[in-house]
Amino acid sequence: MRRRFEPRFWIALAAVFVLGILPLVLVLSRGVSSGAFWETVTSEEAVDAVLGTLQLSAGTTLLALLIGAPLAWLTTRTDLPWRGFFRSMLTIPYIIPPYIAAVAWINLANPEVGALNSLLGKGALDIYSMTGLTWVMALSFYPYVFLTVRAALLSADPSLEDAARMSGARTWRVLRDVSLPLMRPALIASGGLVFMVTASAFGAPALIGNAARLDFLSTSIFDALTSGLGGMAQASSLACVLLALAVIPMFLRARHHAVLTGKASRPTRVRLGRARLPIHLLTLAFVAVAVILPAVAVALTAFMRVAGDFSLSNFTLENFAVLERSDSGSAIWTSLWLAAAAATAAVVLGGLVAFLQVKTRRRGRHLLATLTAVPLAAPGTVLALGLILVWTTPLKLVNTVWILLIAYLAKYVALASRAIGEGLGTVDDALPEAARMSGAHGLTLLRTIWIPLVLPALVAGWFLVFMPCFSELTMSVLLVGPGVDTVGTRLFEMREYEAPTAASVLATVVLALVVVTNLLLRLLSRGRYGV
Description:
The protein is an all-alpha fold. 71% of the residues lie in helices and 0% in strands.
């Protein structure tokens, strides 16, 4: 029997290919075919950028694992007090853009005027170093490890650890011989993810690395692209190297263990004994340093004339005049409507992809879902470069807000697709079948059955795309044209070239909106989404 032609599948495939796959293909093609490819990637500057990226990514990954894995174990397997509170607080950095964290730690540990150095002595801490940058990146990305390992521990069969204890094994022996092997796949997966996002990051490496004269691939691509004649070929060559580094962790595999059983059981809490209070205080101290202190630093600096001066005469509301400036107001408005438009478009396209994957048996549906996820995993710098190549001709969307909308949609549509797919998976097929038998088809079926049944997932998908789009910097800084600004690019420019204290005002706005949006997401999804 001939397979029925399904235009919706081909429309979705074409959209996903043009939006996210074609740009990456063009970057690879342009970079590898460039006559200056080998000259570029073997130059001293490129080698320094590769080594810097590897050093930063490896250091961040190691530190994130050392932070996230023990915290995941403590909040799932021990009698640590306030476990629910710690779970919520420790995941907050997950929703905060890394460049906001960079702004916070610059305010805290600038060797000249940092708030901590005002207390400890000038030069006691220096954020402008590889160590400082690694610290900032690790505090931004350790939640990837914390959440992944925590989920693995919650799904693992705790009877394995209980059996080891009943056999006389002490806590450290159980941790080493049972818990760590169970966590190994999650550790490798989350570590690989941290390596990828660190190698791809632009904001924090630019804000801290430029001042420290550190070279990274993401910042080198930006410099090449903005250098003028011949910059596109050089940037494309470097982008190929960055893409190769970013996808290396995708090939890492760990042997998985069968850790689920048919019976639900609660893990036996490990009693920390005399170490309970010290560990509790250490965890509280970490939350204070990693979560609360940076947020307070950003908010306080927004009220200071000179960063680091805590005298009452230094506090002012003058910095908030930046919000009345036309360029700042325009940037906030542009980010708001772009994020809303991208989120809406992502729900439509992502919903179609999710429906085809979950509710049809169309051949190629899993390939479509995989292609949708590729831009999310690809470095934003590389995707932005590819979009410039795609949309320079014939539509000439480069340097317009429309290319930003395309970039956001291409990058984050997978987030909406996953959320909506989970919602569709809970819908019994008998309901839409009954509607069809009653004569409902097409838009009527969509309006009366599908949308009402998966509305919570649709709302969650919308917010999951809106949050990163509003504060996006990596792609925006490459794609914005003259007269166009977003919150991310405006903050970056103010921090680098204008008024660092006034930049904290915009950072506070981003911080507040992201946190409020996350709370709305949790409320509307009844705690299923958000942190």
